[in-house]
Write a structure and sequence with these properties.
single chain; mainly alpha; Rossmann fold; Serine Threonine Protein Phosphatase 5, Tetratricopeptide repeat; DNA Cyclobutane Dipyrimidine Photolyase, subunit A, domain 3; 3 domains; 19 helices; binds flavin-adenine dinucleotide; flavoprotein; chromophore
């Protein structure tokens, strides 16, 4: 007698039920039962700081309720997935494809182990509108520069959102299951889950997308979509968002940003070594400083440079930072403090709820001048000028640096210019003009 047709839906970065082609495939392959599985993989879970762990726990709890109880296990996915699939007597395990460096190697190992038991790992879709590696130049090679990638990506196009899958025959295979992790974080996190992602998206479309092009660089106005965390966990698929976007100038600007997310995933797929190594290897030979007290001051938001400190404190307070400020603080670490980008990327990885290996590492490398299509190294951000331009009244700085709450607008980005600066706020740990010269000197030496 053949097996009863059951399957396993192994959730990873796709914690939703709508627009979910892999779930459709799981139901087609397992009309008699689909096991909803999540494996807490210590390699990923333990590396995340508490804000990300807490958010994931909340998102899992939400999904678990909607599937009548998620089967949660803890350990190496190679062992766990095989064990659960065998227990469920499933012939297939379904996933949304993962082409990241760790995910693709893990999935290869799982595929091989499942095959020993005559079980297939079926990959359907990916967390992107177009799976990394699909958009190529005419000669089949990958793009290294964003604009031509973006044009080719638009031309390639993507499918419409997948129809909803109704009446999934969820079932539990019994046996050992872990409780959902209980993690609490001091950070002020958004509400996790698919409904929250959808609600946030609708609000953004109703209220902010029209002005997105003009407003996206203003941390004081705080009108970006904040969809990154929902995208990170796949509580919504970018295809769903792209289908809703429309044709306004704001929508065009937003589509371009989603294009950046896809571009960096593609670049990381082409160059998995660029996750922690220099995309442009020449920069490995640059003269950097050993990280010490300066790095700690940067992490704590105590550098004495208001916009930098505001950003670093927002990261600790919300597990998120505005994009313009991510660029400013990253530039400050690399070019004013002369610390290698990986130290900053690691701190972001620990604290960002939306941490995404491709966007983070390539965001850092872009700022550090060593990434693909990078900002030229010699273009050094002046954090005071940036602050005055993008936070002209100091509203953002005051929100996150209460020591500067009463400083007049004129001095809010340069409190050291006051006759009587606030005593509880540090003096700048470096002189920007001097460090800019030093950065350029080191760059010249490299050339
Ligand atoms: C040093 C540095 C580190 C970064 N680390 C991450 C990270 O770990 N995870 C992450 O999702 N983004 C990262 N970014 C990109 C960007 O800062 C965030 O995506 C954005 O701030 C998220 O807020 P939002 O959803 O309100 O963005 P919006 O402005 O509303 O943008 C919409 C969406 O477009 C995508 N997007 C926007 N800008 C970028 C960009 N520059 N690169 C790639 N995708 C983009 C994101 O998915 C974002 O949710 C980083 C940027 C820099 C400079």
């Amino acid at each position: 007698m053949g097996r009863v047709p059951t399957s396993v839906m192994w959730f990873r970065r796709d914690l939703r039920l709508a627009d979910h082609p892999a779930l459709r495939a799981a139901v087609d392959a397992g009309p008699d039962g689909v096991v909803p599985l999540f494996v807490l993989d210590p390699h990923l879970f333990d590396a995340a700081g508490t804000p990300r762990q807490a958010y994931l726990a909340g998102s899992l709890a939400d999904l678990s309720e909607r599937v009548g109880g998620m089967h949660v296990t803890h350990g190496d996915p190679v062992d766990e997935v095989v064990r659960v699939a065998r227990q469920a007597e499933a012939s297939t395990v379904h996933v949304s494809g993962d082409r990241g460096p760790y995910g693709s190697a893990r999935d290869e190992r799982v595929t091989r182990r499942l095959a020993e038991h005559d079980i297939e790992l079926v990959r359907t879709g990916s967390p992107y509108a177009v799976a990394p590696g699909r958009v190529t130049k005419d000669d089949g090679s990958g793009f290294k520069v964003f604009s031509p990638f973006y044009r080719a990506w638009l031309e390639h196009g993507w499918r419409d959102p997948a129809p909803a899958v109704r009446d999934v025959p969820w079932f539990s295979p019994g046996g050992r299951t872990h409780r959902l992790p209980e993690v609490s974080s001091d950070a002020d996190l958004p509400t996790p889950g698919e409904a929250s992602a959808r609600a946030r998206w609708r609000d953004f479309l109703d209220e902010d997308v029209a002005d997105y092009g003009e407003e996206r660089d203003r941390p004081d106005h705080d009108r970006t979509s904040r969809m990154s965390v929902h995208l990170k966990w796949g509580e919504i698929h970018p295809r769903t968002m792209l289908a809703d976007l429309g044709r306004s100038a704001g929508a065009e600007a937003y589509r371009r940003e989603l294009g950046f997310r896809e571009f960096y995933a593609d670049v990381l797929h082409q160059r998995p070594d660029s996750a922690w190594d220099y995309y442009d290897h020449r920069f490995a030979a640059m003269d950097y400083d050993e990280p010490g007290d300066d790095l700690e001051a940067w992490k704590a938001g105590r550098t004495g440079i208001p916009i930098v400190d505001a950003g670093m404190r927002q990261l600790l307070g919300e597990g998120w930072m505005h994009n313009r400020v991510r660029m400013i603080v990253a530039s400050f670490l690399v070019k004013d403090l002369h610390v290698e980008w990986q130290h900053g990327a690691r701190h972001f990885a620990e604290h960002l709820v939306d941490f995404d290996l491709a966007s983070n590492q390539h965001g850092w490398q872009w700022v550090a001048g060593c990434g693909t299509d990078a900002a030229p190294y010699f273009r050094v951000f002046n954090p005071m000028t940036q602050g005055k331009k993008f936070d002209p009244d100091g509203t953002y700085v005051r929100r996150w640096v209460p020591e500067l709450a009463d400083v007049p607008v004129k001095h809010v980005h340069e409190p050291w210019e006051m006759d009587d600066p606030p005593a509880d706020y540090p003096a700048p740990i470096v002189d920007h003009a001097e460090e800019r010269r030093e950065a350029l000197r080191r760059y010249e030496a490299l050339r």
